[in-house]
Amino acid sequence: MRLVDSIAQCRTPFVVRNLTTGALSHLNGAADFATAMQRCPMRFVLSDELTGLCAALAYSKGARQLACADLLRIPAESVWIEWCEAAWFMELQRYGFKIPAGDLEGLGHRGALIHAARDGRSGLIRTFWTVGAAKPEVLASSMEAYFDLDTPQDEEPAAPDEQELPARCVSGGIEGEVDIMRRYFRFRYERSWADYYRRATLSPQSDAAIARHALGTIAADIPMLVAFFLLLSTRNGLPRRPHTLERLNRARARSGKVPLLDHIEVLAPVLPECEGGGGESSGGRRMPRLHHVRGHLVRRGSQLFWRVPHLRGTARAGVIRTRTVTWTIDRPVPSGAGRPAHELRLGC
Questions:
Q1: Contact 323/294 with Cβ under 8 angstroms?
Q2: Residue 328's closest CA among 238, 233, 240, 239?
Q3: CA proximity to 79, closest of 123, 49, 29
Q4: pTM of the entire structure?
Q5: Residue 261 to residues 44, 138, 253, 287, 317, Cα–Cα distance (Å)
Q6: Does residue 198 contact residue 165 with C-beta atoms inside 8 Å?
Q7: What is the pLDDT of residues 222-266, one digit of tens each?
Q8: Which of 28, 155, 275, 285 would you label with 194, given CA atoms 20 to 30 Å apart?
């Protein structure tokens, strides 16, 4: 079962007991999003190939997403994005991330629910994932991320709901370097979790350790989401395969089963083939040993140039036909001039 359906069918509240006082606390969890998931008008499920591509765009040291922030738009006021954890972790390994030990095949799905402003430039993000293989449990991040892609330089992004909760800043780049996460995103505990930890009167060390763990459940997803929305906003969009489950749900209804939710499977665009390393150099200079080169994202006007990850070195490993992929992004039309500013022209 897909994560979107697991959340929509979740009815078990997230309740914890204080081992000292015995008091019960109901914390905001997956069950609290069942209705929102059912009403969400746009649900995307990424193919494994697209997951790998988004991760490569997101985590390569050459990816300069800050320069592309003005191209980003969330395509609806409520959007769900889901992807396979195994495909995600496999790509993360290439960029130095530590991944959980064990069998990747036993991993489930991750997802993010985004509530955005009408112009698609600000909003609130909550992430979800499953734990366990036989009877997976759906968990929700205790932290949420809010963003404002129009935040002026040297200012803090404003919370969309004006809640006065302590916020944390996370950098996705080199220390001291301003990147898209540091500039436009902030992280905070969801209200019920913030109250829970405040009542716990934690030591500074415990508070910092819990915060680091909580950030780890959501912060790494943000560059992935940014890369996906960049690709989604390109002139040709991404290949999409709508899954309308009306017929299947009629059969499920006859069996007394809960209906599944319609969604759009999003596929990776066809990229040029890349084989091996470059040829021998002229002038007798010795070629470098065969090695892997990270991808690079470069922007020129309304075009993004993605230098795909490739092998470089001796020609005996093969010849690279092309290492550059070009995407063109249409600039949004101003409000009142035909198509709404937040609407993107998508297509295959």
A1: no
A2: 233
A3: 123
A4: 0.80
A5: 11, 17, 13, 54, 46
A6: no
A7: 999 999 998 888 877 888 999 999 999 999 999 999 999 999 999
A8: 155
